[in-house]
Model the fold of this input.
Amino acid sequence: MNRGKVFFIGAGAGDFELLTLKGKRILESADCVIYDRLINEKILSFANPSAEFIYLGKENTEGGTLQSIINNTLVEKSISGKFKNIVRLKGGDSFVFGRGGEEIEAISKYNIDFEIVPGISSSIAVPEYAGIPVTHRKIARSFHVFTGMTADNDDIQDFETIAKLDGTLVFLMGVKNLEFICSNLIKYGKSPSTPIGIIQKGCSSFQKTIVGNLENIIERSQEIKPPAIIIIGEVVNKREIYNWFEKLPFFGKNVIITREKSQGDEFGKEIERNGGKSISLPMIQLIDQMEKFDFSTLKNYKAIMFNSPNGVNFFFKHIPDVRLLSNLKIGVIGSKTYEEIKKYKIIPDVMPEEYLSDKLALEITKVTEENDDILIITSDISPIDEEEFFNKYKRKFKKFSGYKNISLDVSQDKILDSLKIATHITFFSGSAVESFFKNLKDPSLLKENIKILSIGPSTTKKIREYTSLPVIQCEIYNGNEMLKNLEVF
Done:
């Protein structure tokens, strides 16, 4: 029987870029991905999009019934003969207080091949993102990692021995037992003034760090909830100097992204690389329609206009020979469209300073003559009026819908869940605005303290149809400007 191979991949802690290169490579070829709740879902965008994705994770620990389901699913998918590469994707490292070992033992009974790809453990990553090194040559020459809880919650650790250790102490999953841990360390000889740090939701925009000592940390950390890491030792004092992640420009900013998924994912990654949280909530989908275009008709035109990067992408995906453009003048709107067409080794002839189709039509008159035929590649909802353009510019404009812009159905509950944690919401098009409020149903549910960012005037105008809340509008209508506004506001 053809059996699949299981790859146990540690996804790292919080930050999606803490995934290893090997883990990313294997994900790209996986045809089945089984993942848990502690991974950053941005990592799933690296996976083969045609893979089967199976979420197996709960808000509690992965023991008992759930663990049996995970074990059985790994076996079932491996022996089905349908999958070649099965990825078991786990937060942090699969074997640092994870159940990777139990899962290997489960599949080994069926002689299923496997590989292990280590992950960056939260035991070192989270303290470092909080500016706390686990070791320091002059302070701590060792570090020790312990579980802060056990299944029966009895005799968690030998505190009499632990209290005598000179190195840094790291406790995972120990917040519920914090008082027990601190009191026992003091009981067996640790000084009450020993520094301690508690880091909640580390390596993410939600990271919260509380520092104190063994004697006062209970009072200081009342609002800390799992998942959190406890780190104990003199290295905690280095946070004042080493703290870096919480100073990134988007730290603490949780941004809803309503644009089309692939572009939204790229925009979201920039947010997360700078300390923020991107909340993917695509409201529109773009459907390629360029396969309906007869490229042999290009010889009839004197110029071609692109008013978005999407049109460029779909157009060049289907063009059989770029030499068909050799006698055409090319105009684009916006720096992103300019950058996109440059990828095909083409420098546009014209690009207006204002990101408006009317301004591009005016610019195109400078490189064409009256009654010339001009092709416009745009979306099906583009407001471009061919007759109006002809009357103004004396050229024969022909609009072709290179892609279809459709509204997606998103549940109101999903939107409200996103709004609970969001600090900002971004709109890149009027169609996304319209879809968002249609799915939200009641505009008054948009909380008053959320910051609304708009790509430009037409998008702002559409927002104004639904809410009077303040809108931050880009002066330059592109994603880079949106990121600048996010940093400032």
Q: What stands out?
A: Residues 149 and 200 are 16 Å apart (CA to CA).
